[in-house]
# Entry
Amino acid sequence: MGRYVLRRVTLLPVTFLILAFVIFCILRLTADPILLYLDIDATPEAAAVLRAELHLDKPLAVQFLYFLAELARGDFGVSHVFHQPALPLIGQRLGPTLMLVGAAMAIAVGGGILLGMLCAVRRDRPTDFVISALAVVGQSMPSFWLGILLIQLFALHLGWLPTSGMGGPEHLVLPALTLAAIQLPNFVLVTRTAMLETMGEQFVVTARAKGLRTRRVLFRHVLPNAVTPVLTLLGLQLGLLIGGSIVTESIFAWPGVGRLIISSIFQRDVSVVIAGVFVISLAIMLCNLAVDLLLSALDPRIRRD
# Structure
């Protein structure tokens, strides 16, 4: 176990370097970075001064080394909109984003496992057909469209929930449901398939032949062996879940990192955009590492591989 953990942790610096290189290339190849920082009326002298400050007058390899050094120090520059360092701005918005993603993940994973188990237990019955059909429909539903529908129904028509902003727990309901709807159908279908495969295994048949109750067989024997594909899917879908929060935060005016990135793109606040993308990417990397370590603890075969 310790050797596997060490091997996974040592891959983090490599992933970090690849991430930094991708961000560096996108920033350099899309356009001259000076054009992103300065107004159209900027003088050539001001452009030359800024180019020297950003080390853009040096070879690309040297620029990348400066870029890595700045990332290591957490120096992403100063926001020209808020007139303060970019990284603390992202840190201030990180809490609401984690709250939203955590609530959506709990709904997607918890609801997906429960509904998937129900489909597996009632296989080929109306309950299985209805839930599976809704899951397939849910996979093709755009989150921004669903969010607007939820606002129209529960906020404007029924008046049960607020339309936007962050306040009490009621403000979290619609954004969390909208974000969870992206992943809930996937967890339903994967859980159903894993449960059905495990229920056909010989050890489950033996447990039933011994006269064990159905509930004990499901929760003691079937579910622990069927949860591995669900956790694997969670690791694969974390990026989509965190990325989807950007759209959801914009729809519901949720004061998180995603909404800050969108507004910074329109305001050409490059430092904040780079800091936000880097923090979100780093969060996805750490979450995937946590899922891999959890899977290795549950399934010894992964450690041997």
Remarks:
- The chain has two domains: 2-73, 93-267.
- The chain has a mean pLDDT of 80.
